[in-house]
Design brief:
With about 150 residues, the protein is mostly helical. Helices cover about 80% and strands about 0% of the residues. One fe (ii) ion binds next to helix 2, helix 3 and helix 4.
């Protein structure tokens, strides 16, 4: 299904998140544009979390969720899961900072991040598009622009 224009920037972030998730896995391929040594991967993941992921989570939690809240029960339930997964991802980032067992932690974090993003792309976003419809998606677009610009 083609992504609605309003959600395209978020889907674009998801693409970068998936690359990070794959890089963190134990069986990761070597990427020319990403670090390949465990310590460097851990640092990259921590930096990426604070430079990109956290803003993305805030947008989903503080703009997207309030906008759709109360419109559809299954969507509300999905968002409760989404928010608890965001917290879990942050916990794993914090664990990475301790420098202990980073290979296992990165592997778990990679799996967590990948399944989180795939759930949003395959289930949550299509549901948002369905529940909101064209007109409200346009309003959401305005809301995102207004709130994320300051
Ligand atoms: Fe998310
Ligand atoms: Fe997301």
């Amino acid at each position: 299904m083609k992504r609605n224009k309003t959600l395209i920037p978020l889907s674009h972030d998801h693409h970068h998140g998936l690359l990070l998730a794959q890089m963190l896995r134990k069986n990761a391929l070597e990427y020319r544009t990403l670090p390949n040594l465990p310590d460097q991967k851990a640092k990259y993941a921590i930096d990426f979390f604070y430079s990109d992921l956290i803003k993305h989570f805030r947008l989903e939690e503080d703009i997207l969720y309030p906008f759709v809240k109360g419109l559809d029960r299954s969507l509300d339930e999905m968002f409760i899961e989404i928010i608890s997964e965001h917290k879990k991802i942050e916990e794993y980032i914090n664990k990475l900072k301790n420098n202990i067992e980073i290979i296992d932690i990165m592997d778990t974090l990679g799996k967590l991040l990948e399944s989180h993003i795939r759930k949003e792309e395959k289930i949550v976003f299509p549901k948002i598009e369905l529940v909101l419809g064209e007109e409200k998606l346009r309003q959401l677009d305005v809301e995102i622009l207004r709130k994320s610009n300051h």
